[in-house]
Specification:
alpha/beta; eight-stranded mixed β-sheet; 10 strands; globular
């Protein structure tokens, strides 16, 4: 069965954006190439689940004019994945993206039961809470950046139940970024 993998960048104080939606806190260094990171995230996935806001911001984004070939290829890989958007307000955008407004648990379980690679859950706090509260997240992968913002939007909001995690892997970079992977224990 496919796994739903929540995979995001966060600050050390668990924020996913600054007070005005800023992402300028994301640490970059010579050991962390954006195209390589995107390719690694996508390597074991063939579906992306988006929350509405994340989809509107990033779902159809394209590389900048004159971007290196490596970045253009990473975006091509990104947009080759099947996309699903979970939204009560947005019902379509003229692309082949599938929009789901109700029956989330049933539809996600149906998609997970299909053959294929894993699923990237890409979105913000609302979609993460919805999926965790419905017990649909199988793995959490976080890139923890060495910065404390103090104010902004926390990732884990309105979670109604405890979720026990089992550490799979930790990878550190010279910049201080930690990539952590956890299984979400089921039935604990």
């Amino acid at each position: 069965m496919r796994k739903v993998i929540l995979n995001l960048a966060i600050t050390f104080d668990e924020l996913i954006e600054g007070p005005d939606g800023q992402l300028d806190w994301i640490v970059k260094d010579e050991t962390m190439d954006y195209a390589d990171i995107l390719n690694e995230i996508l390597s074991d996935k063939d579906i992306i689940f988006y929350g509405r806001v994340a989809y509107e911001k990033w779902g159809n984004t394209q590389p900048e004019e004159g971007a290196p070939q490596k970045i253009r290829e990473a975006y091509k890989l990104l947009h080759a994945k099947k996309k699903y958007v979970f939204s009560r307000t947005l019902t379509g955008d003229g692309t082949d993206t599938v929009f789901i407004g109700s029956g989330i648990k049933e539809k996600v379980l149906e998609i997970k039961a299909q053959s294929g690679k894993d699923i990237w859950l890409y979105g913000g706090a609302k979609i993460a809470a919805t999926f965790l509260n419905l017990d649909l997240v199988d793995e959490v992968r976080l890139a923890i950046h060495p910065v404390i913002l103090g104010k902004g939007k926390p990732l884990f909001q309105e979670i109604v139940n405890k979720h026990d995690l089992e550490l799979i892997d930790v990878k550190s970079y010279k910049s201080g970024v930690l990539l952590v992977k956890y299984n979400v224990k089921k039935g604990v």
